[in-house]
Amino acid sequence: MECFPQYSGKQTVGLNSKMAKQNPWIIGILGFGVFLYLAWNNFEMPFAPWTKTAEIKAVITENALGYGPMGRGYTQIITISYQVDDSVYVQKKKLSQRIDKKKMGSKVLIEYAVKDPGNFEIKGFLKQ
Predict the structure, then answer these.
(1) Taking burial as the number of CB atoms within 10 A of a residue's CB, which of 6, 25, 29, 82 is the most buried?
(2) Cα–chain center distance at 53
(3) Could you give the number of structural domains in the chain?
(4) Which domain holds residue 21?
(5) What is the phi/psi pair of residue 26, to 5°?
(6) Is 75 strand, coil or helix?
């Protein structure tokens, strides 16, 4: 009596070879897509689709300038203040070098999370 029955024909274990070759490529392409999306958004996580948000106007109360990378250009760190219900929020945000210099007193349109008004995103700068 034999312990192992004899198999006839070609045996495959697990996934077939065509599927095994495609899976790493699919995972790599999806990972690269996620990386590009985050890079486009300056590596900041945007609001989740299920998060309730609202828009409000904020005022720039302070503008600090610094040197850009390797001494080229400048960077801006603005301080904005806005009011939600009875609370006043004061937040700092570093702006991209692509954005022109902003003045104190300028208006900013922001989007904030309703449950956490300290979590905000700048939507645009309003003309005075």
Answers:
(1) 82
(2) 16
(3) 2
(4) 15-46
(5) -65, -45
(6) strand
Global pTM? 0.61
pLDDT, average across residues 98-127: 89
CA distance 8 to 108: 74
84 and 67: one domain?
yes
Residue 2: inside a domain, yes or no? no
- Position 79 pLDDT exceeds 70: yes
The last residue of one of the domains, among 46, 65, 85, is 46
CATH number reported for the structural domain that contains residue 84 in this entry: 2.40.50
Q: What is the pLDDT of residues 35-75, one digit of tens each?
A: 998 888 777 766 666 778 899 999 999 999 888 778 788 88
User: How buried is 86 (Cβ within 10 angstroms: 0-12 exposed, 13-18 middle, 19+ buried)?
Assistant: exposed
